Amino acid sequence: MIRYHDLHKKFEENVVNTFENLGVSVKVVNRYSYTPEDVANADVVIPTGGDGTFLLAASMINDNKKPVIGLNSDPNRSEGYLCLPKRYSTNVRDAVERLNKGDFTWLMRSRIRTTLLVFVGETLSARVSHLQMRLNGSTENTNLKCSGICISTGTGSTSWHLSINRLPVQNVAELLRLIDIDPTEGKDSLATVLSDIYNKNLIFNADDRRMSYTIRELISAAVWPDPKGIKPRGFARKIEIKSNCFEASLVIDGGVSFSFNDGTTALLEIRPEDALRTVVF
User: Fold this and answer.
1) How far is the C-alpha of 99 from the C-alpha of 189, rounded, in Å?
2) Going by fewer Cβ within 10 Å, which terminus of the chain is more open, N or C?
3) pTM of the entire structure?
4) Which candidate, 113, 114, 118, 46, places its Cα nearest to that of 82?
5) What is the DSSP string of 177-211?
6) For 15-45, how does the pLDDT look when each residue is reduced to its tens digit (9 = 90+)?
7) Which GO cellular component terms, listed alphabetically, does the Swiss-Prot or TrEMBL entry include (predicted)?
8) Structural domains in the chain?
């Protein structure tokens, strides 16, 4: 643990020195001392870490004017989907010089107000979540019993959304056998190719103005859902969820939780003014 801490601190020091050598004033804060005042006083926020650090930094940026640019401090152990490409982790100076020259493109990541991923459901995972759901301003509620609902932006579609909906090669192979095709499950097999195509199609653009919702383990039996017809996965521009749960939570970006018990309602939508200003090279 000490080794990885030292690795991160050396990376952080390298980032600070690189900016200061170009005449840029830098203030370093950690997750415990980071405040809205720091954001207000900064021209740009540079989280050094992984996606979790990026999300924490972004959580205090409440408009689409303040840029946030992530640098992955440990690319060998962290994917850092939200950070600059991994090659800049070993060449910070190149990244900073490109930023200084304006050699980049703005990417306005859509957010559900100021978050990228929302989960609603019972806190106890073994308990059924009873929820009411309305899509795109509909006046009709759909009563659901499920294991919770995950709502994602395009940015969040590379994480939990992808994991929940991923189609395993094994499932594709079993479907092919049902139509008298005897597939293998190797690297270049038909089942693997079809699975890869399906899974890649689950990811959508970070600036897409739609949200993707996934109803986990939707109970489709007898009177549920009521009325029938809702798809367990789809897109919407506006989602309203009302809780009929016993002890539920609304969780933002996997880190911040709010009580979401019986009678509580959440309205989720994407607005252009809430977009997160980031860069791509």
Assistant:
1) 43
2) N
3) 0.87
4) 46
5) HHTT-----STTSHHHHHHHHHHHHT---TT-S-E
6) 999 999 999 999 999 989 999 999 999 999 9
7) mitochondrion
8) 1-103 (3.40.50.10330), 113-271 (2.60.200.30)
